[in-house]
Amino acid sequence: MPGLNSIMDTSLSALFAAQAGMATTGHNIANANTPGYSRQDVMYSARRPDILPYGALGRGVEVMGIRRIQDEFLLSNLRVQTSRLQSYTAVDSALYEVEAILGSVDNDHLGNAMNNFFNSWNALAQPPMNTTLKQDVLASAVSLVNDFHGVNESLNDLEANIEDNIQMEITNLNGLLTEVANMNEQIMAAEVNGEPANDLRDQRDLLITQISEIAEVSVLEREDGTKDLILAGRTMVTRDSVTLFQSTYRQTGNGYQMTVVTQGNMMEVNLSPGRLQGLLSSRDVQVRNVREQLDQVAAKLVSEVNALHTQGRTSTSSGLSFFTGDSMHTIDVNSAILADAGLIATGRTDAEGDNEIALAIANLSNVGLDGPGSEAVGDRYRALLIDVAANRRSFEFMVQNQQNVVASLETKMASVSGVSLDEEGANMVRYQNSYNAAAKVVSTVQEMYDALMNMI
Fold first, then answer.
1. CA angle in degrees (0–180, nearest 5) for 215-217-219
2. What is the DSSP code (8-state) at residue 237?
3. Would strands 218-221 and 227-231 be described as parallel, antiparallel, or unpaired?
4. What string of DSSP letters covers 293-355?
5. Residue 106: what pLDDT?
6. What separation, in Å, do the N-terminal and C-terminal C-alpha atoms of the chain show?
7. d(CA 139, CA 116)
8. How wide is the angle at C-alpha 125 spanned by C-alphas 121 and 128, nearest 5°?
């Protein structure tokens, strides 16, 4: 037969359960705006009942624990999609800078300088020929060379800026990996008695999400509550042990190039999508491709103009190359012509009015050296501008699409793990009512004790 002590014990368990619920609700409300915080919930269970001849008589409620509301599959997918977004964004940003350097198809200074160069040759070739216009040809050639050099220097600056960002991201990544290893150590110590350290786990998950922005990461959770992190096929964090990245330079056909390696064994890594991989791709693929195509444009210009100009004669020279160099970095006007514009040849002879060479060079703007149907210098340059613009539009579309994917997943995550103040407010009222009801039972039992004592 249950006594007053048993009823009191049951009522007190309800009070303690309501207190735990109120405390957890207050914790949720306090962290509603905390980045990475996952809503927490109290797990209740009925206590083992007293078995009596007429049946089982309940003994109240027991707090089994406090759990994080988290969807690991959804969180993992969000990290993967975030990595891709950051990769696309990094490339899109680099292409934006390239577009700013080159200009648009309709308005670009290098293209205008090229047109001015060929137009100056056309003006020089018009009868009656005015040899004083050779100075205009020289001026337009110097302007074109300066524009090539300016674009080359701008691309150099862009590559240097990208490498600075690569170094910064490596530093950030190493810091985050070290913090995760430290969090693993704290979680192991906090969960030694088997109770999950929810807030520490939230902080660690936020760090891992920040890592996924820099480089896609795979996570393996151990039985002791720690998480191993795998990047680029290598385990970088194991419990409280961490392997870090660093940058180094390796020799290539074009000089020395920054690359990412692991500390210690100096093994080069091929990173998965993320901001760091996007920066590397911007430098090694996008900017390099533009540079190579511009070098081809400069080399074609030098080759075709020289092929014609070396056939020309003046009263004091013959077979003279107009340009030197074979790339946008090395292209220059022949120093002899720089010193004397009179060495610019207009025809195959030095006869007055011979404009065959000048007309042929002017025609290179529209027709290649091999004649009709062959690619002109201007055509190759315009093809480069169109390629850059199309590439930028492609990445711009991918960024917008990926932003929608990430936003959708973030909304789903918020619906699962986020704190709803309306819901927590309702929970507070519910726990308050439970507490008041339990307190009423305790008060009633106390009155019954008093009545019993007065009977003695």
1. 165
2. E
3. antiparallel
4. HHHHHHHHHHHHHHHHHTT-B-SS-BS--SEE-SSTTT-EE-HHHHH-GGG---BSS-STT--
5. 62
6. 21
7. 10
8. 145
Q: Which residue has the tokens 């096929």?
A: 233
pLDDT in tens, 202-231: 999 999 999 999 999 999 998 888 999 999
Average pLDDT of the segment spanning 297-326: 91
Question: In terms of residues, how long is the chain?
Answer: 456
Can you tell me the distance from the alpha carbon of 156 to that of 239, in angstroms, rounded to the nearest whole number?
A: 42
Helix H or strand E encompassing 65: strand 61-68
Q: How far apart are CA 406 and CA 319, in angstroms?
A: 63
| Type and span of the H or E element at 6 | helix 4-30
Model pLDDT, residue 381: 87
Helix (H) or strand (E) holding 43: strand 40-46
What is Dmax (Cα atoms) for the chain? Answer: 143
Q: What is the 3-state secondary structure (H, E, C) of 116-172?
A: HHHHHHHHHHCCCCCHHHHHHHHHHHHHHHHHHHHHHHHHHHHHHHHHHHHHHHHHH
Average pLDDT over residues 235-242: 91
**Chain mean position to CA 57:** 61
Beta-bridge partner residues of 179: none
What is the C-alpha to C-alpha distance for residues 142 and 104, in angstroms, rounded to an integer? 22
Asked, as a colleague might, if the bond just before 128 is cis with ω within 30 of 0, I would say yes
Q: Give Cα 115 distance to the centre of its chain.
A: 38
Considering the chain, what percentage of its residues have pLDDT values greater than 90?
61
